[in-house]
Every structure is written in C-alpha cells, then in structure tokens.
Amino acid sequence: MHSVVRSSGVSQHVSGQTALLGAQDADPLSHQIRVALVTSFPPSHGDLNEYGYHLACALRDDPRVQLTILADEVKLQEEPSGFRIERCWRFNSAFNFVRLLSAIRKSNPDVVWFNIGFSTLARSPLAAFLAITVPALARMLGYYTHVTLHTVFERINLKDAGVSLPGLYRLAGRIATRLLLWADDVSVLLPSFRSELVSNYGVSAERVHFRPHGTFKSVPTLEASQPDRAEPDRVEPNRAERIILAFGYWGTYKRVDLLLESIDEIVSKVPNAVLVVAGTNHPSTPGYLESLQERWLGNRAVRFLGYLPEEELPSLFRSTSVLVLPYSSAAGTSGVVHQACQFGLPMVATNIPEMVEMAREEGIAIEFYAPGDGRALTNHLIRLLKSDELRQRFSQQNLSAAQGTPMSQVVDEYVRSFQERILASRVQVTAP
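RESULT FIELD:
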C-alpha cells in the first residue's frame, strides 16, 4: 500500500518498500533513490536531448541512484544502451500531461526530475501550457519534484522569437513560470536567473537554486595542453585548414549571416580559413539554412554539415580552431560553450548578458564583440586564427574551466540535495 505524506513544505511519495513503520531513527535512504528523469533523449533531436543524455549518464553511474528515463517518442531506432527508458510522451501532444503522470505513477519514483525549458515538450500554446503543469500536478500527487529550468522567461527576446502578440505572450510566460515554481525545487544555470525568479515571483530563496551547467565528460589534464606537448583533445590535425565552427539551431536569435558576410575578408588574411556551419534550422524558421546554403554554394571556404549525432561531435570539435557564437540574444546558458571548453576551444561570441555572465562565473576565455559589429567579429577571428600562441592560451584557460565543473560533480550536488530533501520530509507512516 502507498501513502502520500507532506512535511516541511516538501512532497514525498513513500512506498511500502521505503517507509519504515514507526521507526523514527531508521534511515529512509538506505536504498537507492529512485529517480524518474523527464527529458527529451537521443536518438530524439528534441530540445535539451544532449543535456538529458549526459545527465542520465552521470545518474546511471551513481551507485546511489536507480534511474528511469521518461523520454519522448521517436521512430523505431536502436536505444542507447545501459538505460531504462520509457518513451511515454510525444512532442506537441496535448495529452503529454496524462501520459507523463501515468508513467510517473508506474515508475513510483522518490524524485521526479524535469530537464526542461518552456518549449521542450511542446511549441503549440495549449500543449505547452498543459505540459508545464506536470511538475505541479506530480507534486500534488505526492511526489518530490525538481525542475532544472534552462530558460528564464524574462530573458526571452520576443522580437527574436518572432512572437506576434508580445503582450499576451508575456502574460502567458509569467503564468507558465508560476506553474513551474509550484514544483518542490527549481534549479537554474546562472546566478542572475535565480535572483530574477526570487525577486519577480516572490518565491522562497530556499526553493530556487543556482547550479552550474557542467561539462559533458572528463577532460584532459592541464599538463597535456602545454604548447610543447601533443594533447589528444586539443589538436588541429589538418594543418592545411583553420576551421571556424558555428554550431546550433539556426534562424531565430542564432544567425550566421554576419559571419558569412565576413568570410571573404577573413580568407584574404588567413587563406586556409574555412567556415563550417553545423546544426539544423530552429523549428520556428524552416528553410533558413537551405537558403544560405544555396546562396553560398560553390564557395570553398563555406561548408554546411547539417545535424550531427552526439558520437560525431568529438571529431568535429577536435578539428576546429575557433568556435563562434553569433547570437543576438539568449534565454539561458549555452551547452555548445561547455562542450567547446572540454576540447579547449578558443571562442568568439556576441557580448549578450548571459554569455558575459557565464564566462565570468566559470572563467571561460571568450573574445566578445557587440551585436551586429561585423568589423569587430572579423578582427577577432583573424587575430585568433593567425596566432598559435593566443589560441593555445585560450585553450588552456577553457580546459581549466571545463575541469572545474564536470557533469559527475554537478549531478553529485543534485543527488545530495535530493537526499537532504527526502530526509527532511521523513515522517512516521502508520500501518492501516
């Protein structure tokens, strides 16, 4: 028999397996914590699927955790090995809240952990709104719920997002944020995001946490990145080329037009420079990359790679000389930046507040330019591409930044917080 209990403002679902009747001094965490991770998950290409995969890898390797992944449906493909996966929701479905709540009850977790932004489960307004209710509804059913929120609504540039009714969208965004804040706890990836949620929504500071993004794998030692030593994750194997990489979902606030317009001048100063554009169109801007590819067809200094699966990314990053992040705005941190750090990549980026804060907080070496300033972008890239010494200096700093927050360390902090919250909600359960 299952009992739902509440204590100290935290929901806790206590099963017959974990509740020790009448034993005040018993340790309810003597078993593994059962975690249900709600996330898009490879081979899906959905929002945050890469981050969800690396969270899941760290959780799978943690002996304190028994993991079930509540993932999005995909066409029949081979699943990543080593995981318990329940494909129980479909992107843009208005019925996701029913399917997810059913899957949560079935998996009977101690913790329901949501790895989401505002449009991870849906983009259509009704489906997105219903999906955002799930953390609050799961808490009402008695489960401890934790949301890792990758975006803060107030940081979304509505013009960049192509919103036609900004006033209505702002109202809906605030309601959606309040719904997400009904979860037991929320984590965000920048300190300023935490401050904004606490001040704008009056939520208790004890329930909103800043936690770093984390890097996706163990990184080489700094000794291996010294200029006089070969280092396997920071080598530019094709010395005939200097590759400039732009990587992401393109067409809204991430656009490569300015970068493409700069490439001829860059090549005039660095003849072996090549611009590689990887990734796909943002769902809101179909055809964006195809139009650019047609325009630049035949230019040997420009390549479009399309979507790349996770296993092909290391080879791409190892071959890159400089990463460029040509964003006009951002509503969250950048997973691409953290991937680049693990390979010691030098970076050039627009000086939007989120990018500047992330670089400052994590000690990441980035050359910044003002939005729309093609001259500054071109100069930064030429300077980096022409100087082996400067790229090496940036590389060492970014490898060091990656070592500071490996995903295993980030997940360890989450799991410890889950343990503390579960312990804080310990109650006596009286047998019927």
